[in-house]
Each structure stands twice: as structure tokens, then as C-alpha cells.
Amino acid sequence: MNKNRLSVSISKTINAFTSTLPIILGMLLLTSLIVKTLPAATVSRWFHQSSFIDVIIGASAGSIAAGHPVASYLLGGELLDSGVSMIAVTALIVSWVTVGFFQLPAEMLVLGTRFAIYRNLTCFVSAIAVAYLTVYTIELLT
Asked: Which residues contact 83 (CB under 8 A, 6 or more apart)?
């Protein structure tokens, strides 16, 4: 009986994986394409507004160009060197890792539409809050 449950579970897992694989591959390819076409010099021109607008732009850019955390650190360093504010770079890095606009279809398929949308909205707002808190904490400590 346990052997039958195991085989049913494995079968369901394989079916779920194969049904989501095309969406995951498409998401990865689209994300890679966007990250490759937007170099740091281009992205840095979007900033230098007020801190509120910069943090919104940073969080939005990070949400769209989601990817591997190491890539966000490299991009963040380049943006800081280009004169982009710490608050905008922090919002970009946090949303890069936690929010995923292009991953949303795959996430909705696997976790449910309502949960995926609420999770992404919560992470977007949290990225902005974390950016402000991080910068103000650094200012207090220095």
C-alpha cells in the first residue's frame, strides 16, 4: 500500500513538473534577455530624481529584472559607482531577489493566483520599506 502511494506521488510530481517546465524556461529566457539588454549605464540614467521616485524606480526595475542575487550585487555596485543613491540601489537589490514580475505566471500556476499576487505585492512594498530602513540605519551608525 505504501509502495502504491509512493508511485502515485512520484507520478503526480512528474506531471506537475512537466506541465510547469515550459513556463519556467520561458520565464528564465525572458528575464535573461531583459537583464542582458539593460546595461548599468542605461539603468543609471533613470535615477537622480527625488529619493521617493528613485526608490519606486529601483523597486520596479528590480521586480522586472529579477535574477540571481550575485548579478544584482554587481549591478548595484555599478549603479553606486554611477552616482545612483543608496536607497534606490537597495530597493533594486531587495526587489530583484524577492519580487518576480516575469516569474508571476509560473508562480500563479504552482502556488495559486491570489497567493502569488499578494506575495509579490507584499514583497514590493517590503523592498521599499527595507531600502528606507537600511539607508537610515547606515546613516545612524556613521
From this structure: 44, 48
Instruction: Tally the domains of the chain.
Output: 1
Task: pLDDT band for 135, please (50, 70, 90 cuts).
Answer: very high
Any idea how long the chain is?
Answer: 142
**Domain residue limits at 66:** 2-141
- Measured CA to CA, the distance from residue 2 to residue 72 in angstroms comes to 45
Query: Using DSSP, how many helices (H) and how many strands (E) does the chain show?
Result: 7, 0
The residue behind cell 529566457 is: 29
Residue 68's alpha-carbon distances to 31, 32, 83, in angstroms, are 10, 10, 23
The pTM score is 0.69
